[in-house]
Amino acid sequence: MKLYLSSFRIGNRSEKLVEMFGNNKKIAVIANAMDYLDDLVERKQRVQQSIAELTDLNLDAEEVDLREFFNKSNLLSGTLNKYGGVRVRGGNLFVLRRAMRQSGFDDFILGKINDDNFVYGGYSAGVCVLTPDLHGAELVDDPSIIPDGYEKEIIWEGLKILDYYFAPHYRSDHPESPLVEKQVEYYKINGMPYRALHDGEVIIG
Fold this sequence. Notes:
alpha/beta; Rossmann fold
């Protein structure tokens, strides 16, 4: 699986993202990290923003809402296998992690690790969820937010696709940047390997 991991939105290496795709340029936008929003119009606008960014790169983007697949993981696999990759938006990390487990998205992605034809693109929470666990992220995102249809259990286990922790929006012009300073300090104090990215920066893997 190819990784395109950014701090915020597409980042400064969009040409690399395009190069990762083969003939199948269909990409599923996963926006469930925003399910904490009460304003459904705002949520829709943010999804459309993500789709537009990818469309401008000549990728065929559309949203796949994981809520439609809660407890239907077999259906999710059939749907996502039609795409050449996914783009996982930022938002609340703990909401996103719940959505991944309840839909079976986590199992699907772990099953794609050895598939060189599949692209995982993500930013902010969409990258943090790939780490060993979510400890430290509670300094930025509220783990107690439970949108309708979501299970109450806080999931601390990450997908373990990355062997380090991730701090987005580091010293950037982003409202969460001051909280990210505390997150980075937590990683340092606890001896946790991490990478902190400024907005615009990208990790290619």
